[in-house]
Amino acid sequence: MVTWCKPLLAALIVACVAFVAACGSSNSSSSASSSAAPAAPASTSTSTTAASSSSSGADPAVVKLVPAAIKSKGTLVVASDATYAPDEFIASDGHTVIGMDADLSKALATVMGLKAKLQNATFATIIPGLAAGKYDMGASSFSDNKEREKTVDFVDYFIAGESFITKASGGTSISSISDICGKTVAVEKGTTEEADAGTQSKKCQSAGKPAVKILSFSDQNQANLALSSGRAQLGFLDSPIAAYQVKQTGGQFKVVGAAYATGPYGLALPKGSLAPAVLAALKVVMENGTYDSILKHWGLTEGAIPAAQVKINGATS
């Protein structure tokens, strides 16, 4: 879900099922997981305590920035595509959304005097759902880019890129995105990777090379399965997710080629609504140590950004 964009379990791998992680989620917008939802790592079978251990509660200055309609209902409805570990995925209980974005959402809601209500939703439906008022925030490894900023506001909070993965044995070899001409690439619908693969395919054809065969799926689990089953030669997804997935496969998959298009993740919000409150809340959790604790817990400290650099709609492309 990165712009450049935004790692599962041995049992799944042994069974030749898709390894976890993705910018999408189940086919519904409920809190229940899809049948292909990944299990949580052994140490995180339920939501972590990272978000609650450092946060000291509501911040009066931040609470004042929360729109009255949201303040009155007392909840922050957060949509995540829970197939994208370790950023967002389903716990071993089969329905709880956990991960870095889930913990961060809870921490931000607390600072805003709200309770986070996490909902699992297909990635491609989240931004339309925000625009329609169905959700208050999208926390799903969204790459902040200019095109998306036309529909929603983003509060940038993390840095990530895009990577390719392939089978460690019998996979394909590339050095960069320019080498995917003629390759079959599995992506999730609505992601930056899907768009970037399409752009590269046009470049391939303009240069007289074969087009990229893009296989788009409604969630990342299905994209992963296409790779593990041999239908696709490459998987294209956010770099932190790719690294986590490869680690969990025990050597069955590997990252191939150079990372591509590094940029900011953004928390997606309806235009002209919550962005100032979320920005202020994010600075609070950064300053009190909660942000660092969450990233450390999920092994994502390399993507951290300092509080001085967080902003609203910081996309450069």
For this structure, the quaternary state is: single chain
Share of residues in strands? 15-25%
Task: State the strand order across the main sheet.
Answer: 9-8-10-7-11
Number of helices: 12
Task: Please state the structural category.
Answer: alpha/beta
- Name the poorly predicted regions: 3-49, 51-55
Per DSSP E runs of 2 or more residues, the count of β-strands stands at: 11
What is the general shape?
Answer: globular
Proportion of residues in helical segments: 25-40%
Strand-and-helix sequence, N→C?
HHHHEEEEHEHEHEEHEHEHEHH
Task: Explain the overall architecture.
It is globular and about 60 Å long. It has helices at 10-14, 50-54, 60-63, 68-73, 100-111, 123-131, 146-149, 192-206, 220-228, 239-248, 275-287, 290-297; strands at residues 75-80, 83-84, 88-90, 97-98, 115-120, 137-138, 152-167, 184-188, 213-217, 234-238, 253-270. It contains 12 helices and 11 strands. The strands form 3 sheets. Strands 9-8-10-7-11 form a 5-stranded mixed β-sheet, sandwiched between helices.
Short description:
The chain has helices at 10-14, 50-54, 60-63, 68-73, 100-111, 123-131, 146-149, 192-206, 220-228, 239-248, 275-287, 290-297; strands at residues 75-80, 83-84, 88-90, 97-98, 115-120, 137-138, 152-167, 184-188, 213-217, 234-238, 253-270. It is an alpha/beta fold and 317 residues long.
Name the descriptors.
3-stranded parallel β-sheet; single chain; alpha/beta; 5-stranded mixed β-sheet; 317 residues; 11 strands; disordered N terminus; globular
